[in-house]
Amino acid sequence: MTSKFLPVFAKNALIEAHQALPTLLDGTATEKDILGVCRCFRLRGLCEVLLDGTPERLQRFLAMSGQAYLHFLQRAVPAQRHTSKAAPFFDALASMDLETARQIALTGPAPFNPRREYEEDFLYVVRLMELVVTKTAGDESMRARHTALTLETDDARWNLVEALQQGDSDRFNDSLARMLHEDSARWRRLQEKGAVHEEDAATEVHGTGPGAAGRAVGVADDVRVPASPFPGPTPSIFASGLGALEGPDALVAAAPPATRRASIARRRSTVEPAAGAG
C-alpha cells in the first residue's frame, strides 16, 4: 500500500472515533467501545506522522487516546475492564502526558481475569503502572509471581520492568531493543497472514518501533533511567511539548461541527430529560 491511501485512512479513523463519542460522553461506552475509539485516535496520529514526519499531531492524538480512556475509567466498574488491555495508558506515556498516565494508573488496575487475559500480560501492565505512581514495580509477591511466569521464556517485558526498577540503563536499552524487534516481527506476521486490516498494517507496522520506544522511554524518563537513542524515527518524536487536554470536552472540540452539536445535545438531554421520560 502506498502513502496515497493514508489521508483516506486518517479521515476514516477520526470519523469512526467520533461516531462512538456520544456513548463515551454519556457513560454508556463499554471497554470494547473505548478501546476502539482509542485505537482510532492512535491510527490517526500514526497516519499524521507518516504523512508529514512532525510530532505535534501524533502527540495530540495519542494524548486524546489517554484522556478518553481516563474518562471511561472514571465511570466504569472494575468488572467491566481488563488491566492488560490498557493500551491507552501507553499512549499517554508515549505522548509524555505523564499526569494522565498517573491518573490512569491510579484509577485503572482491575482484578486479574483468568478467562480474558494472560497473567504475565496483566502483571507487566500493573507493574509499569506501579512504577509510574510509586516508582516501585509492585510488591515482592507480585514481582516473584511475575518472575516465575516468565522464567522459562526470558520475557523482554519482564527484563524491561526489572531494569526500570533497578535503574539499570544498559539492561533497559537491551530489553527495549528486543521489544522493538519482537513487536515489529509480530505485526509483520499478522500482516502476512491477513489477520489485520490493511490500514493497521500500513501504519502500526511502521509505527510500532517508535511507538514502543516512546512508551517505554516515557516510563524511563519518569523514573530517571537514561535511554539510548534509536535509529530511524526516534522516541524524541514523541517528546514535543503538548498542553494537557481537558477530558471529554477536548474530544468534542476536536470533532467535526455536526458531531459537536450532536454530542452537546446528547449531554444536555441527560441533564434535562424530555417530558414524560422515566
Question: What does it look like?
Answer:
This protein has one domain. Helices cover about 70% and strands about 0% of the residues. Residues about 230-278 have low confidence and may be disordered. It is an all-alpha fold. α3 packs antiparallel against α4 (about 55-75) and α4 (about 55-75) packs parallel to α6. The chain has 13 helices and no strands. The longest helix has 25 residues, at about 170-195.
- As a whole number of angstroms, the C-alpha radius of gyration is 19 Å
| Number of structural domains | 1
Q: What is the H/E order?
A: HHHHHHHHHHHHH
Number of helical segments with 4 or more residues: 13
Average residue-wise pLDDT: 74
What's the total count of β strands? 0
Q: What is the percent of helical residues?
A: 55-70%
Give a quick account of the main beta sheet: strands, pairing sense, barrel closure.
none
Shape: globular
Indicate the structural class.
mainly alpha
Quote the beta fraction.
Answer: under 5%
Compute the separation of the termini in Å: 52 Å
Uncertain ranges: 229-278
